[in-house]
Amino acid sequence: MKNILLPTDFSENSWNAISYALHLFKDEICTFHLLHTYTPIVYHVEYVMVSTSQFDLADVIREQALKSLRDFETRIQETFNNPKHHFESKAVFNTLTLEISEQVKENKIDYVVMGTKGATGAKEILFGSNTVHVFKQVKCPVLAVPDGFKFEPSLDILFPTDYEIDYQNKQIQPIVELSKSYQSTVHVLNVSYGKDLTEEQKRNMAKLGSLFKNITSRFHSVKNQEITKAISDFQNKTRIDLLVMINNKHSFFENLFFKSTINQIGFHLNIPFLVIPSKMANN
User: Fold this and answer.
1) Under 8 Å between Cβ of 116 and 127
2) Domain boundaries, the chain
3) Which of 1, 9, 100, 111 has its CA 20 to 30 A from that of 144?
4) 89-123 pLDDT, tens per residue?
5) Cβ(193)–Cβ(161) below 8 Å
């Protein structure tokens, strides 16, 4: 049984991500954990020490959140009504990233699924700040679903990599599971800058090939291109339904995202993006 965490702020953006998750795992027995976090702006510790009104305010906000969670559950049951899916809801006074990290450990979460829409809603913004922090800090695969993206039963996967990772089964397992579930092809895309692969990279490539031995995979190589352009160009030539990267400290994922501005990386991601941490909380 899978445990899937679904953070929600009750927006249509988060409902869209929830809908995607329910479609994606429709054939699997899952517990979906609906999570809403709240941190009232007026909450300050020094006030709580002298006034109970702050507690009252927190209680009101919590009750409103629980009602909205119940409404979301009702909407899910009316829309999907999948007997394989069980739901648990929680409203918590905490920051989103800290609470997600706690939930990942406490409930042995397999995936976090959330929307990507930034607070501004501007077209050039790829990820909101919440998604950025979750990518950086949560030790669990995180699936970010673009605003308005609708699930389709095909699921061909693009997996860009520089072969600088000593791939482990636990990192690759989500890709293999999804590929098997949807009989999809995994396109491995290596982007290099004119140099031949080192012996270490060749070993890692061979290891990746062995980890993908039971699924359909194709290996591609592109030279002298920016990674963002390589991804965009590949998408233009080949139908891709899911982008996957491993967040490894020394891989180009970190260079691409965390040493620059993650929400303005130079291309518009219009498909779901699965980020797999190099180290998992539950392994």
Assistant:
1) yes
2) 2-145, 157-245
3) 1
4) 999 999 899 999 999 999 999 999 998 764 444 44
5) no
